[in-house]
């Protein structure tokens, strides 16, 4: 495995420009979030996305998440029901992902690694959002961890740069660049709401389910 280049998050603009260049060239980078470190690749590059599946031992039937640069970009690709629009307006950018139907069937067919019926879409106010604003295509992401680990420790997401480097070395993960953001404090995932029909919280995470309920119910 090639040596992973490490850049500090304190020079965010420089680090993100470098990450965008790697992603646009078909490579994989690792970025910190408030929750944990994420692998990122060009969502339109099948080889790069499949490489993340292999490194994680991730089932092919479990799609990657898509980070979008703006609400307008989301609306251009996905169907936003009035309820989904309320969630987007009130809780994005943030630690929330929406399962949204594709607007065009051909887009779903071209991106099976993102989900055929609906894709997991999020908007991030921190580094992932900065990357999405710089790349040719929105980045596809997944947590730095093994999906097929035999113990909870093996499956535990990477909360610190050292864990990302250990993951890359142990599993020959094609990580070219790591942005060192120190320790990620939350250690919990995105809250996921399925908006393909009546909105339903399918995974509780950093955004409390009551916040989702409030965003949906209040005028």
User: Outline, from the CA principal axes?
Assistant: globular
Low-confidence stretches: none
Average pLDDT metric: 95
Distance between the termini: 53 Å
Tell me roughly what share of residues is in helical segments: 25-40%
CATH class: Alpha Beta
- Enumerate the strands of the largest sheet in spatial order, edge to edge or round the barrel: 1-8-2-3-7-4-6-5-9-10
What is the CA-based Rg, rounded? 16 Å
Counting DSSP E segments of at least 2 residues, the number of strands comes to 10
Characterize the biggest β-sheet: 10 strands, mixed
Report strand %. 15-25%
Overall structural domain count: 1
CATH topology: DHBP synthase
Protein architecture, described:
By secondary structure, the chain is α/β, with parallel strands linked by helices. The protein is globular, with a radius of gyration of 16 Å. The protein has a 10-stranded mixed beta sheet, with helices on both faces. It has a single domain (5-217), classed as DHBP synthase. It contains 9 helices and 10 strands. The protein has helices at 12-24, 46-56, 71-77, 82-91, 105-110, 127-132, 152-155, 161-170, 209-217; strands at residues 5-8, 28-32, 37-42, 65-67, 96-101, 118-122, 139-143, 175-180, 191-194, 200-203.
